[in-house]
Amino acid sequence: MNVINKCGEDRVIIKFYCEKTGKFYRLIETSTWPYLEISGIRMHRANEVDPKTDAILKIRALGRIYGSVLDCCTGLGYTAILAARAKNVKEVVTVEKDENVIFIARQNPYSKPLFEDRKIRLIIGDVIDVLEEFNDEYFNFIIHDPPRISIAPELYSLDFYRHLFRVLKMGGRMLHYVGRAGERQGKNYLKGIIERLRLAGFKKIRRADYALSLIVKK
């Protein structure tokens, strides 16, 4: 792995290619917090809103949070960090399977609390496997901010939604970031996502358009 630190070139802070994953990784500066790009695909919103505002909007969409929070896809840790700041949140369990992403987060000063906040428990692994470790109705809230459906279809599957339903407490809420799923391809992925969430057991589903997310209640 060759890491190149750049200053002033396309606002790229870090970039490298990983032979193991076959992917290119870049950390790119913005006016607030940097965003992560993997093989040309942004892992954060950076056009309409900056990555910091994006993370704030997602947490705000969940309403008042407390107790135990599951953050399914860590990324640079922004949502986990903001969730942990809530006074009544006791723990945030955040899961990331790509070690390159964690490597970049360690270089990013805005991700520092991810590794230092005692409320945050970072698990390196596949969230599908990690969920098996938790009892039924363990979490009060879930933040599910997966890569786009074409990259990680398993994180939009009925089987995975059933896992999320199992570990979420009755009355608990989940934020499911959906972006503008399939819009550019002229496909309506959102309809299928909502149908699978209902099949998994979730009955109350509403849109939070400002966060490009669904708010799902058990």
Structure description:
This protein has 218 residues and is an alpha/beta fold. It contains seven helices and twelve strands. The strands form two sheets. It has a seven-stranded mixed sheet, with helices on both faces. It has a single domain, classed as Vaccinia Virus protein VP39 (Rossmann fold, 3-Layer(aba) Sandwich), CATH 3.40.50.150. The model is unreliable at 1-9 (pLDDT under 50). The chain has helices at 51-61, 78-85, 99-107, 112-116, 127-130, 158-167, 189-200, and strands spanning 4-5, 12-18, 23-28, 35-38, 41-42, 67-71, 89-96, 120-124, 139-144, 168-177, 204-208, 213-217. The protein is globular.
Could you provide a short overview of the structure?
This protein is of the alpha/beta class. The chain has 7 helices and 12 strands.
What's the arrangement of secondary structure elements?
Layout lengths: L3 E2 L6 E7 L4 E6 L6 E4 L2 E2 L8 H11 L5 E5 L6 H8 L3 E8 L2 H9 L4 H5 L3 E5 L2 H4 L8 E6 L13 H10 E10 L11 H12 L3 E5 L4 E5 L1
Parallel strand pairs: 6-7, 6-9, 7-8, 9-10
Antiparallel strand pairs: 1-2, 2-3, 3-4, 4-5, 10-12, 11-12
Helix pairs in contact: 1-2, 6-7
**What class do helices, strands and sheet pairing give?**
alpha/beta
Elements, N to C (H/E): EEEEEHEHEHHEHEHEHEE
Q: Return residue spans where pLDDT drops below 50 for at least 5 consecutive residues.
A: 1-9
Classified in CATH, the superfamily is: Vaccinia Virus protein VP39
The CATH topology name reads Rossmann fold
- Main-sheet strand order equals 8-7-6-9-10-12-11
Mean model confidence by pLDDT: 92
**CATH architecture descriptor name:** 3-Layer(aba) Sandwich
